[in-house]
Design a protein that fits this description.
The complex is a heterotetramer, with 2 copies of chain A (about 160 residues) and 2 copies of chain B (about 80 residues).
Chain A: E1 10-15, H1 21-31, E2 37-44, E3 53-58, H2 60-77, E4 80-88, E5 90-92, E6 97-105, H3 108-124, E7 128-134, E8 141-144, H4 149-156
Parallel strand pairs in A: 1-4
Antiparallel strand pairs in A: 2-6, 3-5, 3-7, 4-6, 7-8
Helix pairs in contact in A: 2-3, 3-4
Chain B: E1 2-7, H1 10-15, E2 19-23, E3 26-27, H2 28-34, H3 37-43, E4 49-52, E5 55-56, E6 64-65, E7 70-74
Parallel strand pairs in B: 1-7
Antiparallel strand pairs in B: 1-2, 3-6, 4-5, 4-7
Classes of the chains: A alpha+beta (about 160), B alpha+beta (about 80).
Chain lengths: ~160, ~80, ~160, ~80
């Protein structure tokens, strides 16, 4: 049984501490027993290259309202039973989860598209900034991560005509 | 009689500070003239937003911050 | 820590017994520590209407080879670190998981599309047949579930020109 | 000298049996003439496939099953 509970239909969180993806998804499944399909995405700090740490900052007065607005848009646009959108802030190390999005729906295409939509918006339309610590020294050097062009074009796919 | 201005993400590095206090009231020309040249250059970019009192301004040149307001300078985001 | 282990890069299974989605995904995450993104889909027996049970039959000489071929196509078509495709057979009750698909990739679009692709093919191009037991009697009546037109058109999206 | 024919999914209901033994060799006309009319009608549909010896036939009318072969009649699938 899941040790944590998620809110239904929508559970949006900005998290200061690490979380268990397995437990979160088990709790989301438990919160939506009537859904035929659940899609999820989890983004993780990659341990590639020389990355030692990832720091996520945000602007608190905007972060949660902005994420809630993204989730509300997904709930309105697709026929969903539920939506979960969790995003870490603070200092993360390689292997830790940055973001978890899940959608529960009767039909799988709605679940897929809604999860994809929310991820695209969290990437380039939510109030987070991230930087990586790289290098071989004791401290290493910090580098801000700019959004990629692909992040903007991914999000532009959802603009209605 | 002051306005707190926050420099988010990489703007804090450009400014050399994550927050500064400016005299109130603070408008767009006043903001541009008091931040560092590097940050002023960034503010002129379309992808840099400004929030005042917890709301993103649809048109940042209309900034009118009063005593006690918090102004946040928001560079392009990168979440996920 | 995950109590089960998944094979890397590809783990395809036909399962006679129920499985824990949370444990499976935790094990998949653990098997792909270098992936930046993991997408998953789980399909569940919906407890809607009068459905009492769902029976999944298959043709064993074809089932696993067919699923492995679908997974191999996904691995070839997208740049993936790993793929998991598990499908139940036998008698299932409402709330139980029928299918779990997960993809691990450096970039999230590859993970999303590969999971979507594999699900579309498991729906209408793998060797499973399902029927539902409905009705109020002690036994109820069994009804075969035909693929929907949407299942064929969903799959046709992936046909290369 | 026989061929085992399996009726998968809803074809078992139509045939009234999930498997039957037919004399070997068994070809497409022989199969059509020995299964029930309902199943024969289904076999003429493009979406119904036939496997022989664990391989799906690209063209089912080429069926040539020999003694000991297992032939599977495969109606439209519905997984997931």
């Amino acid at each position: 049984m899941a040790r944590i509970a998620v809110n239904a239909p929508v559970d949006v969180r900005v998290l200061e501490n690490g979380f268990s993806v397995g437990e979160a998804l088990a709790a989301f499944n438990a919160a939506h027993p009537d859904s035929g399909g659940i899609t999820s995405f989890v983004g993780t700090v990659r341990p590639d290259g020389e990355v030692k740490a990832l720091e996520l900052t945000h602007y608190e007065p905007l972060t949660l309202p902005g994420m809630e607005e993204i989730a509300a848009q997904a709930m309105e646009r697709w026929s969903l039973d539920g939506m979960l959108a969790w995003h870490r802030v603070g200092m993360l190390t390689p292997g830790q989860s940055i973001v978890l999005v899940a959608a529960a729906a009767r039909h799988r295409r709605a679940a897929f598209e809604a999860t994809d939509f929310v991820m695209d918006h969290l990437k380039s339309a939510a109030w987070f900034w991230k930087r990586e610590q790289r290098g071989t020294g004791a401290d290493g050097a910090w580098h801000w991560i700019s959004p990629r062009d692909a992040d903007y074009s991914d999000r532009a796919r959802w603009e209605k005509e | 009689m002051s306005v707190k201005v926050l420099f988010l993400g990489p703007l804090a590095d450009l400014e050399g500070a994550s927050e500064r206090e400016f005299d109130a009231p603070l408008d767009w020309p006043g903001l541009l003239s008091q931040v560092s040249d590097n940050v002023a250059g960034q503010l002129l970019e379309a992808r840099v937003n400004i929030a005042c009192g917890g709301k993103v301004l649809p048109e940042k040149t209309t900034l009118q911050a009063r005593d006690g307001d918090e102004v946040a300078l928001l560079p392009p985001v990168s979440g996920g």
